[in-house]
Amino acid sequence: MNDILQRLTETLEARKGAAAESSYVAKLYSKGDDAILKKVIEEAGEVLLAAKDGDPQHLIYEVADLWFHSMVLLAHKGLSAEQVLQELARREGVSGIVEKENRK
After folding, report:
1. What domains are there in the chain, each with its CATH number?
2. Which own/partner contact pairs does 92-96 have at CB distance under 8 Å and 24+ positions apart?
């Protein structure tokens, strides 16, 4: 499962140097933070609507869009999905209540 995240991370990195008209991601990067953040918010809203409509395939599709745009945001900020996975691994086995208290 990690393979697709690695390949996608590599593609997103490669798009950073591409001309805006050459790809969707390059165009998003060229527009900067606000455009990328707007897409993440838009996709999050679509996930909520898909969850309410009861179609599991639609929900999967929209979550994939949200993950993708979240990865674009991470790459734009010099971060990676691997770092998110490491954070999830760090939290594994830790009570959500305890983990939240440790953030204070």
Report:
1. 2-79 (1.10.287.1080)
2. none
